Amino acid sequence: MMRRNVKFSTASRMFFALLLLSGVAEAQDTPPVAYQPPLFRAAEEQARPKLPENLSVKLIADEDFAPYSFLSRTGSPAGISVEIAIAACEQARLACTVEVRPFAEILPALARGEADVAVTGPRLDEKSLAAARMTRPYFRIMGRFAVANTSTLDSATARSLAGRRIGVVKDTVHARWLATYYSTARITPYDDLAKAGAALKAGEVDVLFGDNLQVIYWVAGEAAAACCRLLDGAYSDFDYFSRNLAFLVRRDRAELAQAFDYGLDKAQATGSTAKILRTYVPLDPW
What we know:
This protein is an alpha/beta fold and about 290 residues long. It has two domains: about 10-140 and about 245-280, Periplasmic binding protein-like II (D-Maltodextrin-Binding Protein, domain 2), CATH 3.40.190; about 145-235, D-Maltodextrin-Binding Protein, domain 2, CATH 3.40.190. The protein has nine helices and 15 strands. Strand 2 and strand 3 form a beta hairpin.
């Protein structure tokens, strides 16, 4: 559930905002791909934590962290993280409400007891974990490659991309990762992913690399005009761009953290998590 040390720049947030306006990054009525998410942990058979039925729980989320949490076009809280949290609440038989606030207000509101669970917002570090309890992860931020449909490339290893032109957003963790591990490639920086994607479409670069979901939304979006495809699966590197997403629960609510772990396990086991991911993410993010 971390945010600020992964560079979601203003341009990146504008990119997601454009996707939201077009409907690509919002939940779709008909999921285009029936992929199956991996298990983030084996859901063990366990009893529901002893909490009152329909206990009122206040959730709080970043208002500007699409596609994980944001205000939908109808003005209601939405996003991958928001809907997974609601699904966990339903499975744990909790009566949850969601409020969105600016990023800077999330952790202070949790500390003051104005909310019980932070769905998105604070990064998972010593400061936030000293003030709250982390649930088990439910998703992971990763990186992804894409190529033109006409490309003969079938692998994104450093060896296979040696000498190839790779478009990436400049001054990002993704650009630094390429500089470290793909030094034999010709790395071409762009101001934002939309421009890097346009370069791939025009044949000015051979490969596109960036945030997994941003690349997926671009490939599936109107701007790409079905020109391109994902290459290989997602890449995970916790030293650079990968982060596990989890919820933060008030430090004094250990039983509530356990209830969310239970709810997340049940949502995973019943297929609710997979359904939510498939309705927000049009291509397999793994």
